[in-house]
Amino acid sequence: MKKINNIFLTIIFLFIIIITPLFIIITKDKEFSENENRYLSSKPKFSFENIVSGKFFKDAEEYINDQFIFREKLYEIKTQIQILMGNKDINGVYLAEDNYLIEKHLQEDFDENILEQNIESINKFAEQNKDKNIDVMIVPTASLILQDKLPKNAPIYDQNESINKIRENITNCNFIDLRETLFSHKEEYIYYKTDHHWTSLGAHYAYETFANKKGKQIDKNDYEIETITNEFKGTLYSKILYKKASNDTIEIFKPKEEAKYKVYYNLGKKTSDTIYDFEKINSKDKYQVFFGGNYPEIKISTENINNKNLLIIKDSYANSFIPFLLNDYENICVIDLRYFKEDLEQYINDNKITNVLILYNIENFSQDETIKYIG
Question: Would the N or C end of the chain have less CB density within 10 A of its end CB?
Answer without folding.
Answer: N
